[in-house]
Amino acid sequence: MSSSLPWPLSMHLLMLRPKRNGRWWRRSLWRSVERVMGEVELSCLAYVKMYLHACLFPRCSVNGLLLSSSPAGGAVCVTDCVPLLHTHLPLAPITQLALTQVDVWCAQTQQRIVGYYQANACVSDSSPTPCALKIADKIAEQCNNAVLLMIDGGKMSPDYRVPPIVMYERKDTRWTLKDKHTIMLRQWEETRDIASQLLDSGDHSLLVDFDSHLDDITRDWTNQKLNAKIAELVSPANALPPGGGTVSIVTFTWSSSTARGRQQNINSMSINHMLLENSQEWRNWLRDPT
Amino acid sequence: RANVLIIVLTEMRDKLRKWREDNHRNSEQIVDVGEELINEHASKLGDDIWIIYEQVMIAALDCSRDDLAWTCLQELKRQFPGSQRVKRLAGMRLEALEKYEDASKQYDSILQDDPTNTAARKRKISILKAQGKSAEAIRELNEYLEQFVGDQEAWHELSELYINEHDYGKAAFCLEELMMTNPHNHLYCEQYAEVKYTQGGLENLELSRKYFAQALKLNNRNMRALFGLYMSASHIAASPKVNATVKKANVKYATWATNQINRAYQVSYARCLL
Fold first, then answer.
1. Confidence of residue B167 (pLDDT cuts 50, 70, 90)
2. Most buried in the list A185, B16, B137, B214, measured by CB within 10 Å?
3. What's any one GO cellular component for it (chain A) (predicted)?
4. What does the domain layout of chain A look like in residue ranges?
5. Is the minimum CB–CB distance between B229 and chain A shorter than 8 Å?
6. Which DSSP helix (H) or strand (E) runs through B251?
7. Which residues of A touch B201 (CB under 8 A)?
């Protein structure tokens, strides 16, 4: 253990953290509400930043981490995302560095890493690459309901009606497509419009990913300015309740819109998937130092 | 008023020239500036107009501005009928429309007339890459490099292809070629170090630390190299296979890197507050 180093970050932070207990956690408020295991909600902020990241570097593969400010257990509520790289995704040093830095920041801001997203440079192929699977596996070691999200470049045309994302969850040791009925985006049309608006106004250039931060360390990879801009545009119905994760709305399907618990007017959309196989082999590039 | 116009024109021309020489891929900006220049001031540009047409056409293809690309292509065809360079541009337009078969035929016809035309060969390899046929692209690029050993751009492209295929050994070889011919380029050193780090194992980690240090020597503001030095040194120090002397030395390197990183961030915060 390199405990003699003065640097507050521990290189082995991710590796040595004890595995979280994936117990059910029922708050008294939700006693009357039936929750479904493996539910994922994607917030407007997270979606818009992911989308802008992919648009900012249209000729590169980009990736990033999905964060949640809600407590562990029950549904996964992705409240934010951190864009990471747009060059040399398969190389280890910067990825390891970014994971460690984001982990430390999350600990300071009461968030946790709950997933990983990637958009491939090749628009016709949105299947997870070996390095995507590797990083997602590492995240799943710390978070039971981790999700892997691939942005489908082919569906990102201006008049797209469906969120251009494909989500995977970990069953046993493999990443399989998630049941579309357990994925939720509030106020999809508004979210989509906000993303288009920021793209048209050129504000997507405000987005800073970790790579850009390393090119110029005065730039803020937590994107506080952009977060504030997006927050201004989001209507109250689309925003997450304070403290995040106190959503009491349960599963949605295309046709029904039954809401239990608190009454809110939510318009959600389930996501159509393409059946993909992701049985690729990968090499062990993230070496365990111990 | 005419003077103001001339100044604006010269500025736009200089911008385009700078972007052309530096090989920037800021296509949206090039289209903005170039389109205005072509539409409003074509007569005042003299012979520069042709190279600007070429530059703007390629940028337009990159931004899906097919209308603009077509206009530029027509002007160039009219001025230089039968030119190989214009033929290549026509091929690129077909590529942008995803008509890869037709584009390939276009490049083949160029190569029939001139087998040493490197541009056409590289475009054919790009088609393979666009279609996701990495293995074939790698094979073709290797064949190309056997003939044209000095092509830096091609070596770099090959290293990227190998990295995406997780073939780090061969990627390292390509970067070694680049470092030999460009010993003062800190980016190649740093990328080589990253590849070595990714390969893993004690020997590769030591090599990566050395090349991160070399990159820092060439450019002491390269943050990736600084972080890389810290990480490789701490990994070596943490490894059970090293003896006490090596461990001590690496802890020293890592501590030095930490201090440099802290200083760099402090300076940047101070700059932000100004």
1. very high
2. A185
3. EMC complex
4. 24-37+242-287, 40-238
5. no
6. helix B244-273
7. 287
Q: Higher pLDDT residue, A28 or B119? A: B119
Q: Tell me whether residues A11 and B258 touch, CB distance under 8 A.
A: no
Per DSSP, the three-state class of A40 is strand
**In the block, residue with structure tokens 């111990």:** A290
**pLDDT for res A24:** 36
Mean pLDDT, range A121-133, rounded to an integer:
89
Is residue B245's pLDDT more than 50? yes
> Using CA atoms, how far apart are residues B127 and B107, in angstroms rounded to an integer?
11
- For chain A positions 200-259, those within 8 Å of chain B (CB to CB) are 214-215, 217-218
Q: B149 is written with which tokens?
A: 């050993």
Which residues in B lie closer than 8 A to residue A283 (C-beta atoms)?
166
* CA-closest candidate to residue A147, choices A162, A137, A159: A137
Q: Which two tokens stand for residue A278?
A: 């992701």
Neighbours of B95 (CB within 10 A): 21
A11 neighbourhood in chain B, CB within 8 Å: 231, 234-235, 238
Q: Which amino acid is at A170?
A: R
CB A248 within 8 A of CB A261: yes
Residue with tokens 């890493």: A113
Note whether B251 contacts A285, CB cutoff 8 Å: no
Instruction: Indicate whether B125 pLDDT > 50.
Output: yes
Q: How far is A49 from A230, CA to CA, in rounded Å?
A: 9
Reply yes or no on whether the pLDDT at B20 is more than 50.
yes
Count of Cβ atoms closer than 10 Å to residue A282 Cβ: 15
Q: What is the mean pLDDT of residues A1-6?
A: 36
**Using one digit for the tens of pLDDT, what is the confidence trace for B169-198?**
999 999 999 999 999 999 999 999 999 999
pLDDT at A16 over 80: no
Instruction: Tell me how far apart the alpha carbons of residues B242 and A29 are, in angstroms, rounded to a whole number.
Output: 56
Cα gap B64→B59, rounded to integer Å: 9
B58 pLDDT above the threshold of 50: yes
Query: Hey, is the C-beta of A275 within 8 angstroms of any chain B C-beta?
Result: no
A60-to-A80, A143, A159, A160, B132 alpha-carbon distances in Å: 22, 28, 23, 21, 14
Give the strand pairing for A165-171 and A174-177.
Answer: antiparallel
Name the superfamily (CATH) of residues A40-238: Cytidine Deaminase, domain 2 (3.40.140.10)
Would you state the pLDDT for residue B274? 66
